[in-house]
Amino acid sequence: MIKQSGRPRTLTLAAAAVAAALAVSGCAKSEDDGDSGADAGTRAQQQVAPSATGTAGATCTLKQFGGTPFDLKTSVVGFSQSEKEANPFRIAETKSIKDEAARLGVTKLRVTNAQSQFSKQIADVQQLIAQGAKLLVIAPLNSDGWEPVLRQAAAKKIPIITVDRKINARACSDYLTFIGSDFYQQGRRAADQMIKVLGGKGKVAILLGAPGNNVTTDRTNGFKDRIKEKAPGIRISFEQTAEFTREKGQQVTEQLVQSNPDINGVYAENDEMALGAVTGLKGAGKKPGEIKIVSIDGTRGAVRSIVDGWLQAVVESNPRFGPLAFSTAQGFLDGKPIAEKVIITDREYTTDNAKGSLGQAY
């Protein structure tokens, strides 16, 4: 799993993705700034987390799944994006999938965007199946409600790789594998940073992500568990969903400073909410660093806000899934065992490294 402090060890994708992710038991522009740099983006893509417990859980082979081999380069491959691409994470995620498909010569990549509407995402994926997709890569908006898609895909033995968020279903039956971060550990790492910047004392508010998916649940539980374990002097006195959006992050923060004027820290479960919180604090006349903000994502706007003093730390959630998604799919087609969870590594940005690392944010 991902280490809780410091920078995780990384492996180059070409040499280790299949070995670490497949054979185990078990850059875009942001809306805040310009190009993050091709070299930095490439480095960030090359991160696969070897886990002490395996790249996690049971494994699945093509034979177990019951499918038949096909050529990725000439087959229809569907990618379903969940959210509007105003969010830098989603921009980088989609770009990574497209770029890797182009690099590999995948000629029939079909990309859809649900525009943050779950009913549209279900319809999008059903349309991809109707178009003859042999492989589905899905960034789910919600974790539940996928039964219609899963039934149709299972009937045609179409492997599904989910990225970023999990779906509540059975690996190697309803879907092939999940590729993404360890969200619970992200929450714990964010808590470690909050404990550090508050000196282990104070009142903290949580800007919760959207309900109904495992990212929000895990990031919340990881943060709370770590605070309880390591910092009894910190009290969580406010929590409210801001649905992973900047606008609602601002709105909730404006309410927060009125109802809890003595708040010391804000834990935002993604950078968009954190940047909304910054706008809310500015409107309330707060100064940089007066209320400590710790976030998760690693967007360039958030890392720049560390440099400017408004944020104190950001735990990355790496969106560059393209190389790992396609290498996982190819390994599966080659008959190699695929773990039910493949964990990608996430770095951290703090006041110590943010300025020098700005080019590596997305």
Give the structure's gist in a few sentences.
With 362 residues, the chain is of the alpha/beta class.
How would you sum up this structure, described in words?
The chain is elongated, with a radius of gyration of 20 Å. Strand 9 (265-268), helix 10 and strand 10 (292-297) form a beta-alpha-beta unit. The protein is 40% helix and 17% strand. It has 362 residues and is an alpha/beta fold. It has a 6-stranded parallel sheet, with helices on both faces. Strands 8-7-9-10-11-14 form a 6-stranded mixed sheet, with helices on both faces. The protein has helices spanning 13-22, 38-45, 62-65, 88-104, 118-130, 147-155, 183-198, 214-230, 246-259, 271-283, 300-307, 322-333, 354-357, and strands spanning 59-60, 76-81, 108-113, 135-138, 160-163, 177-180, 202-208, 234-241, 265-268, 292-297, 313-316, 338-339, 341-343, 348-350. Helix 5 packs parallel to helix 6, helix 7 (183-198) crosses helix 8 (214-230) and helix 9 (246-259) crosses helix 10 (271-283). The chain is built from 13 helices and 14 strands.
What structural class do helix, strand and pairing data support? alpha/beta
* Overall 3D form: elongated
Distance between the termini: 23 Å
The DSSP helix count reads 13
SSE string, helices as H and strands as E: HHEHEHEHEHEEHEHEHEHEHEHEEEH
The beta-strand count equals 14
Proportion in β-strands: 15-25%
Widest beta sheet: strand line-up: 3-2-4-5-6-13
Which value, in Å, is the CA radius of gyration? 20 Å
Helix content: 40-55%
